[in-house]
């Protein structure tokens, strides 16, 4: 038996009880054992033991996993499925990389654009020009940009929302505490307004906010796509950028989960220390308490939990505790809050058919609760849920909790 990676031993923790099946979005859609967490673990084990000869025997099933980690919450044996999945993907990418056009383009974009803030800013500046000049519409009419991709790709905000916000932002009075803010790569370019509102929310509640200019992409997209070395390089950069931070705040569930895994990824004491200092914005404010009362928001709102906040970081109650403090808000229960929306980083671009099926199920569930707004704290979820609701003809709008917590 030729073992491929250290994660083989971890796959043995799975006792095949099946409690993960109900929580798995892909198994729910296909009903196939190979599209379930325990089925994928069995396939990984069989491949490591050379009972399966070709990486293609497992790759399609591994690729179709969203990595939502809902199975970890359900698992009674404590199987660290997310970490095993990423290590298996890294092995496949390193030893048997796919060489088709889509895979090559994915590597180029992640390695040479997303990982470099300057290049990413230029890319979005060009995308903004394409929108304003009508070039995007022309590309769509010529079939160079599919309607599916066009509906999913966000409209690029104006330059004033995409510029750097590096520096120190102080509250009007004496600061309760100094915190550092992780601004992310795509958050900065697509949801720069949310970053600015996050600073406003923190300073209005008495916190001094430092935004390091040397920070960069968290590496989550790279890790999810098997690019382990790239993810570690980005982690080391952020480790240096936040070396003096007492508390590191983020407003993106995917980024927050990635930051919290730096300790396991890099294995150093400094990385483990950084992981313990990371807080989601809602988690942090729920712990510290709101000093400034939010403005009244007399609307029906439901909360949808990002997978990497609830399952990846274990933050469940904090967002709801904060939303309950908004005057005049009517919070309605979302029975499917813990179910994945189908975004999963760039999964909805790589696996559009399955992502749409999962997304439609989410939108249909949300429409039944009768809310005017859906609050969720992850950029991919914001885009995916908004797209699916619009496609279903729903007038329900999607927002980040930060947007309605301001005084």
Descriptors for this entry?
single chain, 407 residues, alpha/beta, Fumarate Reductase Iron-sulfur Protein, Chain B, domain 2, Rossmann fold, 5-stranded mixed β-sheet, 4-stranded parallel β-sheet, 24 helices, 9 strands, 51% helix
Biggest β-sheet strands, sense, barrel: 5 strands, mixed
Category from helices, strands and their pairing: alpha/beta
For the secondary structure, the number of strands is 9
CATH topology-level name of the domain at 293-404: Rossmann fold
**Mean pLDDT over the full residue set:** 92
Low-confidence stretches: none
Quickly name the level 1 CATH class of the domain at 293-404: Alpha Beta
The CATH architecture term of the domain at 293-404 is: 3-Layer(aba) Sandwich
Strand content: 5-15%
Helical proportion?
40-55%
Given the structure, what is the number of helices?
Answer: 24
Strands side by side in the biggest sheet: 1-3-2-4-5
Shape: globular
Query: Radius of gyration, Cα only, in angstroms?
Result: 21 Å
Structure write-up:
- By secondary structure, the chain is α/β, with parallel strands linked by helices.
- Among the domains are: 7-95, Fumarate Reductase Iron-sulfur Protein, Chain B, domain 2 (Orthogonal Bundle), CATH 1.10.1060.10; 293-404, Rossmann fold (3-Layer(aba) Sandwich), CATH 3.40.50.1860.
- Helices cover 51% and strands 8% of the residues.
- The chain has 24 helices and 9 strands.
- Strands 1-3-2-4-5 form a 5-stranded mixed β-sheet.
- The N and C termini lie far apart (62 Å).
